[in-house]
Amino acid sequence: MKDPETIPRRDFLKSAVAIGGTAALSACLGREDADIPTGPSDLSSYPQRQHSWNNVLETDEAGNTLQPRHHVLLLLDYTEETPTESDRNTVEGALRGLEHAYERSNDGLLLTVSYSSAYFDRFDRSLPESVDLPPPKQLAPFEDPEFDTPDALVHLASDHAQAVLGADEALRGNKETLNGVEQPSKPLTDAFEVAERRTGFIGEGLPAENQDIEGIPDSKPVDEEAPLYMGFKSGFEKNQATEDRVTIQTGAFADGATQHLSKITLNLNQWYEQDSRSQRVSKMFCPFHAENDSVEGVGENLGTDSGMDDCPEAQEAARTKGVVGHSQKMVDVREDDSPIILRRDFDSTDEGKAGVHFLSLQRAITDFEDTREAMNGTDLVERSALGQRNNNGILQYMNVDRRGNYLVPPRRHRSLPVARPEEDG
Predict the structure, then answer these.
(1) Does residue 73 lie in a domain region?
(2) Which of its termini does the chain have fewer beta carbons within 10 Å around, N or C?
(3) pLDDT tens digit string along 67-108?
(4) Rounded Cα–Cα distance for residues 64 and 58 (Å)
(5) Are 314 and 322 in contact (CB under 8 A)?
(6) What value, to the nearest 5°, has the Cα angle with vertex 182 and ends 195 and 76?
(7) What is the pLDDT of residue 1?
(8) What is the DSSP code string of 243-300?
(9) Euclidean distance between CA atoms 8 and 209, whole angstroms
């Protein structure tokens, strides 16, 4: 790491999260002026839905929910074949240690722990029918991802870099006290091994200050106001499923959800160096928005809706304009006029490359697969001159490197659950 005093604050905090470790945490504590509230001593009021974040997140002026700015993903392997009650107590104690240390909010720390189908394969009984959790698979003819099959995934998120760094270190047993709160003697890594660590960020200023990276042109084109590398807002309220819609409704895992995680590499050289502003708006939103200058700046003027009701159907745009927008294609995969997945994706500089960790929540993994199928636009390609990737939304600017599917259990089953808790206790 460079001399911390010579690095802009936001750039430094992102770099600290990406590097991780006790040295990065110490340096971060010296640069980030934050008085982070602690969590309660009694956690009984916390919701069963681990993924229930929206009511404790901030919103922008239009009312769109804002994601925490800093993220850490820990892919974990369980060290034993059969979960033991002792290990469950260790896991639960470690998670509760973080919740006592930090308030459950973007100003403190938000977390989920989820489990893969590979984890549940160790049990004689299969998951109940109310849980749709197939192994990850190829979802487009032009992609060839590797598949993530760790046993578990912990997602840590906060507006403060020191919170995600501190939580990461505490789970590894490297912090006896966190935010002034004593941590359990047995860390999470007494039960799990960390197989991989991924990091990322989202929010105004962070992409611009971290664009000196492979996949972004040397001209530094990312706008200071952009929350993501591609230069536009995302996560409009009306373009997101509600937390109720993505929640499993019945069975032992009711109040849980399924989660998909893709690791995506971006190549934005053509996006910024060859495509015009009008072309970028056409491909991200729709040609109608480009022709009518409907998108100002990064899209703040759109409010809570990307405005797809003003755009013609994707098939018409593909046939008459030779280009179709990413948001335009998503209109066809809705239920009662609402999306069926809740996106919580964020940008990344892992491995020195511009990327996206696409994290989505849905009631069933098939909801994500249906959404991805609409994004592919295969039916549009077959009926028009649209390319399989060219002028087909934003597909040509990204490559899916890895995919993984997970179950986010309700809080009562978050620590090494069995496949059939209603039958096996």
Answers:
(1) yes
(2) C
(3) 999 999 999 999 999 999 999 999 999 999 999 999 999 999
(4) 8
(5) no
(6) 10
(7) 46
(8) TTTTS--SSTTTT-EEEEEEEEEE--HHHHHTS-HHHHHHHHT-HHHHHTT---TTTG
(9) 8
Name the nearest CA neighbour of 262 among 111, 369, 404.
Answer: 404
Mean pLDDT score of the chain: 94
Q: What is the C-alpha to C-alpha distance for residues 365 and 114, in angstroms, rounded to an integer? A: 14
C-alpha–C-alpha distance, residues 354 and 272, integer Å:
14
Percent of the chain at pLDDT > 70 equals 94
Residues contacting residue 109 through CB under 8 Å, at least 6 positions apart: 98, 99, 101, 102, 103, 156, 157, 158, 163, 164, 167
Domain that holds residue 301: 4-40+53-424
- pLDDT at residue 330 greater than cutoff 80: yes
Asked whether the beta carbons of 359 and 343 are under 8 A apart, the reply is yes
Cα–Cα distances in Å, from 182 out to 141, 154, 169, 177, 197? 51, 21, 13, 4, 24
- Classify residue 228: in a domain, yes or no: yes
Residue 373 belongs to some domain of the structure: yes
Widest CA span in the chain:
65
Q: Which pLDDT tens digit goes with each residue over 248-291? A: 999 999 999 999 999 999 999 999 999 999 999 999 999 999 99
Average pLDDT over residues 12-23: 72
Provide the β-strand partners of residue 396: none
Coil/strand/helix, residue 117: helix
Counted domains in the chain = 1
Asked whether residue 47 is assigned to any structural domain, the reply reads no
Q: How confident is the model at residue 231 (pLDDT cuts 50, 70, 90)?
A: very high
